[in-house]
């Protein structure tokens, strides 16, 4: 897999320098590059307890992204997924530790425990006061004597860092950190493995499966489970966390493991809020990428029953952009539409033949969803199939409230439904088409002429003409040929749709931004949808 890197051996140093360049002079790195890669605060005067953490790289923004006021004093960075050396950790400790002492926050992996532990012993031999805490928040494998340290580490960074910033002594900071570690529980899930730079990707998670309880280094999870929806996926996460949850309100940290979209993470947050234990979540950190596993397409959830003092420390301001802040989890509030925006629909009426006709058309578009999306991905944004299928499903659901026996009102009612349920420009244009067709039918025009009036109004407002590479290229000839029957209309629609594959310059829609080489040979998805509808009607 191609990645935006230079040389594999320079990945970590290049990334650190990027962080430093964007820090506005607030951060620096120690000399000793590339073997000693330590990011430190530039404003640090050693008058307070230093908080030092780190580990392998690949978890960005952890750990360097959390170096700053109110969080870490220094971050020690190893190679990707590899612990930093003892010398690197010792250099970090000595660079920031004064008479107030230093707290090392270490995730529970053998390499980190050993290297940070030995560095702490050597620092003590130099007369420095150093404490070390081990984070073991992962509940994926509860029977293990030593659980892994994962994203719950961020609770420790923030609470210990805020206490240290406020002037607490080392004993107080270390005691608070140990309390947070004892009460924090985390688990992750992913739909795909991560891509380690310079190494072949391990494709161990089959299509249609999700891995539960995997680590932040790409290590396998506790089990693979069938994936059907975000709701079911979160239910599996919730089942593991509920066992470990304590009584009382909790703060949830919702962490993107690197490859999930912002849209997906917002859905995960919704599932958290409406889950079985959602009522026990008072505040949330994120969703955001905080402790990642490179580009892993997954998420993790960490819970901690913070008391009022700890909540205040979590909410204490910090200038670090990597820390997303803490928000209060509130009930989902729905306000009514303003007067005049609520759709007024005609009285519903039954008509079996019309219902069968409409349902059949909708089923054609639903069945074509993947094909139309694939066509649109070549010439647009890849959602035409989903947009039409979504509107079709909504129309089927609305069948009981449509005036099926009154075709004049039915056109208008379909237009209203599409206005509410179909997004994008295609939804607006088709709503205009049916509304105008309804106007034509109400003035006495027969069906074909009413539909042609709808097309003319849609072209007038949308601007698309024959040859512009849109659904008009199939719809206009189909309506013209409809006078001699559905078979001729279907043939004309197919001919018009297929012709769009040879039109090398689109003049409307997103395809207008695509070059001729990408357009050539690909049928416009809107025109293809029209052709399939008429072929269905003519069958």
Automatic annotation (TrEMBL):
Keyword Acetylation attached: no
Lineage: superkingdom: Bacteria
GO BP: glycerol catabolic process
Give every DhaK domain span.
7-323
GO CC: one term?
cytosol
Q: Which GO terms describe its molecular function?
A: ATP binding; glycerone kinase activity
Tell me which UniProt keywords the record has, alphabetically: ATP-binding, Kinase, Nucleotide-binding, Transferase
- Keyword tRNA processing on this protein? no
Which residue range or ranges hold the DhaL domain? Answer: 352-539
* Protein name (database record): Dihydroxyacetone kinase
To which species is this protein native? Ahrensia marina
Q: What is the lineage of its organism?
A: Bacteria, Pseudomonadati, Pseudomonadota, Alphaproteobacteria, Hyphomicrobiales
